[in-house]
Design a protein that fits this description.
The chain has 452 residues and is an alpha/beta fold. It has two domains: 193 residues, Rossmann fold, CATH 3.40.50; 190 residues, 3-Layer(aba) Sandwich (Rossmann fold), CATH 3.40.50.300. It contains 19 helices and 13 strands. The strands form two sheets. It has a seven-stranded parallel sheet with strand order 3-4-2-5-6-1-7, with helices on both faces. It has a six-stranded parallel sheet with strand order 8-13-12-9-11-10, sandwiched between helices. Helix 2 crosses helix 3. It starts with 8 loop residues before the first helix and ends in a 16-residue tail after the last helix.
Length: 452
C-alpha cells in the first residue's frame, strides 16, 4: 500500500493494534491522528477481504473530515455518506455497496428501527468521539449497542471524562459485561488494558514543540468585587433559607452567576480578564501570530467581539450555522487581518485542525479538564510550527479558585486508569462537592449522584 506521506512509527503501531482486534479503543491524545490510523486499518481489512461492510459513526461536524481523510489515506476504497430525507436514507442503509458508510449520531437515533432490524449487519462498526455513548441509558448508546456487528472499535481521546461510568458505558458497546462501575480502580485498569491503546504527544512526538502554560491569576476589578460579594452573600443566604427544599440546580445557578461575574461586571461591564486579554492580544497581533480565545458562554464571546473589534475577531460557536463553519476556519487561516478566533468549548473541542495558532486563551474554565485539553489540542497537534502558549485565566478568592482545586483531582482518575495505578474513583463534580463550594449541607435525599 502507498501513503500520501510516511506515517509516524507510533501510527503504524496503532494500525497494528486495531487490525486484528474485534473490540478495541484507540485512545490516543487528540492531535495524534486517530482517524488516519483507523482508516488505514479499515483499508487493510477491506483489501484483504476480511470485511466488506463498515459503518463509521461520528458527530455531524466531523463527517466531512472523515470523507476528506479517506480521500487522502484510502482513495481507492468507495464510501458513501448516509444523509438526506427518510426515504433516501432507508435506501442507502439497505445497499450492500459501497464497503464503507459514514453516518452521524443524530441519524443513528432517527433510523433506529431499520438499524436494529434482522437483515442489517455490519462487519465492523467504528464509533468516533465514542464518549458520545458513555451514558449507558441514553438513546444513542442503546441504538449503538443494538446494531448487529462482528467487530467494534471506539475512537476517543477522553475515554473517561467525569467518572468510571464513562469507560464502563463505552465497554458495554465493545464487550458487554466486561467492566462494571463498582470495580476497584486497579482491577478495572487491568481488565481494560488489553483493549485500550493510549499514547500522548510527550510519549511519541519527541520533536513536537512544547505546550507552555501561563496561569493568569487576577484580582476582580472594584466593580466586579462589589457585585460578586453581594451576589455570593445574598445567594448563600437564600440557599440556606431553602432548607430541605434546596436542590443541586439551585446551587448550580449560583455557581454560574458568580462565574459570569468573574468574566464581566453585570452593571458596568468591567472585566479584569478582558483588560489582561486585551494587552496580551496586542502583543500577539504585533508579532504577526494568531490566537484562539475559549469561553463556555456564547454571550461572553459576543461581548468580547465588541471589545476586541480592532483585532477583527471571528466567531465559532453554536450560533454559527454549520454550513458556514468551514468558511470561518478558512478565513481565519488565510486572512492576516483576523488575528483572533472566539470559540466556544462545545463547538471547538472536536474536529478542528488549527495548528497554525500559537496562542490559546481560556477566558473561563470548563468543568472538565478533559474538555479543556481537547480545546487546547485544536492548536497543539501534528504540524504545529512552534510552541503553543496556553493562558489560563482565573480570578483569585472567587468560585473559580475553589472549582480549580476540585478540578485538579479529576486528572488523577484519568491517569490512574490509563497507567494502571490506583486513585480516586470519581473525577466528576458530585453533589456533595457542589454544595461544598458554599459550605452548604446536602438535603437528605438518598444516594449521591455525579453531576458534572
Amino acid at each position: 500500500m502507498r501513503f500520501p506521506f510516511e506515517p509516524f512509527p507510533y501510527q503504524f503501531g496503532g494500525v497494528a493494534f486495531l487490525y486484528p482486534r474485534y473490540a478495541a479503543i484507540l485512545a490516543d491524545e487528540m492531535g495524534l491522528g486517530k482517524t488516519m490510523q483507523a482508516i488505514t486499518a479499515i483499508r487493510m481489512l477491506v483489501r484483504s477481504g476480511e470485511v466488506s461492510r463498515v459503518l463509521i459513526i461520528c458527530p455531524k461536524p466531523l463527517v466531512t473530515n472523515w470523507v476528506k481523510e479517506f480521500g487522502m489515506w484510502a482513495a481507492e476504497i468507495p464510501l458513501a455518506v448516509v444523509e438526506g430525507n427518510q426515504a433516501k436514507r432507508d435506501w442507502q442503509w439497505q445497499q450492500p455497496y459501497p464497503p464503507v458508510q459514514i453516518a452521524n449520531y443524530e441519524l443513528l437515533v432517527r433510523d433506529r428501527e431499520l438499524l436494529e432490524s434482522e437483515q442489517m449487519h455490519f462487519d465492523l462498526v467504528v464509533l468516533d468521539e465514542a464518549q458520545r455513548i458513555k451514558n449507558f441509558s441514553s438513546t444513542t448508546s442503546e441504538v449503538a449497542r443494538g446494531i448487529s456487528r462482528s467487530r467494534n472499535w471506539a475512537l476517543t481521546g477522553t475515554p473517561i471524562e467525569n467518572s468510571l461510568a464513562d469507560l464502563v458505558g463505552i465497554f458495554e458497546f465493545l464487550v458487554p459485561g466486561h467492566l462494571h462501575v463498582d470495580m476497584p480502580v486497579r482491577q478495572m485498569a487491568e481488565r481494560a488494558s488489553d483493549y485500550i491503546l493510549r499514547r500522548t504527544k510527550e510519549m511519541v512526538l519527541k520533536d513536537l514543540p512544547p505546550r507552555l502554560y501561563r496561569d493568569a491569576d487576577l484580582s476582580l476589578s472594584d466593580d466586579q468585587l462589589a457585585s460578586y460579594q453581594i451576589a455570593e452573600r445574598d445567594g448563600v443566604v437564600q440557599l440556606a433559607e431553602m432548607g430541605q427544599q434546596i436542590t443541586i440546580h439551585h446551587v448550580f445557578q449560583l455557581v454560574l452567576r458568580l462565574k459570569q461575574i468573574c468574566n464581566f461586571d453585570p452593571v458596568s461591564g468591567a472585566s479584569a480578564k478582558l483588560d489582561r486579554l486585551d494587552a496580551d492580544l496586542e502583543e500577539v497581533a504585533a508579532s504577526g501570530k494568531k490566537a484562539i480565545v475559549f469561553s463556555q458562554w456564547v454571550g461572553t464571546l459576543e461581548r468580547l467581539r465588541e471589545k476586541l473589534c480592532r483585532f477583527e475577531p471571528l466567531e465559532y460557536h453554536g450560533k454559527v450555522p454549520m454550513r458556514k463553519r468551514d468558511g470561518v476556519i478558512e478565513r481565519f487561516k488565510e486572512d492576516p487581518r483576523h488575528r483572533v478566533m472566539l470559540m466556544s468549548y462545545g463547538a471547538g473541542s472536536v474536529g478542528l485542525n488549527l495548528q497554525f495558532c500559537e496562542y490559546v486563551f481560556l477566558f473561563d474554565r470548563w468543568w472538565n479538564p478533559a474538555v479543556e485539553d481537547q480545546a487546547i489540542n485544536r492548536a497543539h497537534r501534528i504540524g504545529v510550527a512552534g510552541p503553543v502558549t496556553v493562558t489560563r485565566m482565573l480570578c483569585l478568592e472567587t468560585i473559580e479558585e475553589r472549582i480549580q482545586q476540585v478540578l485538579a483531582e479529576k486528572r488523577q482518575l484519568f491517569d490512574a486508569i490509563l497507567s494502571r495505578t490506583s486513585g480516586p474513583e470519581s473525577m466528576g463534580f458530585s453533589q456533595q462537592e457542589i454544595f461544598g463550594l458554599f459550605d452548604l449541607k446536602m438535603p437528605r435525599t438518598g444516594k449521591e449522584e455525579q453531576c458534572f
